[in-house]
Design brief:
Order of helices and strands: HEEHHHEHEHEHH
Strand order of the largest sheet: 2-1-3-4-5
Length: about 150
């Protein structure tokens, strides 16, 4: 059975791809409900910071700290340094990652700060990013700061 929250993050990634962007999606779940969803919109918005996780946080809106401290962030790809910093800043205690084969972000940092990190190695996430990186290597390198 597919995890409905990871499926929602994947749907966000697919939406980003349809918009001509980078296929990375995320959702933030609190008390069993999605409170924020987003996808990488750097290309679409000409943004320096709208990674999937950052977009989901923005779309969750202003929440009490207690909400974030009880939340789980689902993301299709291992979080980069910027997104990991936001996870730590807001005290999100649990991160579910679709895959880290194509990019391993700051998982060690998150774990060292007490965040529970689970990597699913979801075949859909791996295939989507592998194909995107193959087709758009320069855009991918720009997105991860290479």
């Amino acid at each position: 059975m597919t995890d409905p929250f990871l499926a929602a993050a994947i749907a966000e990634a697919e939406q980003g791809l349809r918009e001509g962007g980078i296929p990375i999606g995320a959702v933030i779940v609190a008390q069993g409900k999605i409170i924020g969803r987003g996808h990488n919109r750097r290309v679409q918005k000409g943004s320096a910071v709208l990674h999937g996780e950052m977009d989901a946080l923005e779309n969750a809106g202003r929440q009490p700290a207690s909400v974030y401290r009880g939340a789980t962030l689902y993301t299709t790809l291992s979080p980069c340094a910027m997104c990991s910093g936001a996870i730590l800043l807001y005290g999100i205690p649990r991160v579910i990652i679709g895959e880290n084969n194509t990019f391993e972000g700051e998982e060690a940092l998150l774990k060292s700060r007490g965040v529970s990190v689970e990597v699913r190695q979801d075949a859909r996430c791996i295939a989507m990013m592998t194909e995107f990186i193959r087709a758009h290597p320069a855009l991918w390198s720009e997105d991860i700061g290479e």
